[in-house]
Amino acid sequence: MSQGRPPSQSPKESARPGSFKVGRVAGVPVYISYSWIIVAAFISFTFAGSIDALIPGLGNAKWIGAVTFVVLFYLSVFLHEAAHTLVAKALGMRVVSIVLHFFGGFSEMAGESRSPWRSFAVAVAGPVVSIALGLVYFLSPAVREAHPLVSLVIWQLGVSNLFVGVFNLLPGMPLDGGHILEAFIWGVTRRRHLGGLVAGWAGRLLAVAVLLAPLAWSYHRGSTADLALVVWGFLLAGMLWMGATASLRSAKVRQVLPSLTARNLARSAIGVPYDVPVSELVNRAVQSGVHAVVLLDHDGQPTGLVSEAALEAVPPERRPWVAASAVSRTLEEGLMVPDDLSGEALLHRLSGTVSSEYLVIDRLGVVVGVLSARDVNAAFA
Question: Which string of DSSP letters, residue by residue, matches 154-214?
Answer without folding.
Answer: HHHHHHHHHHHHHHHTSSSTTSHHHHHHHHHHHHHHS-HHHHHHHHHHHHHHHHHHHHHHH
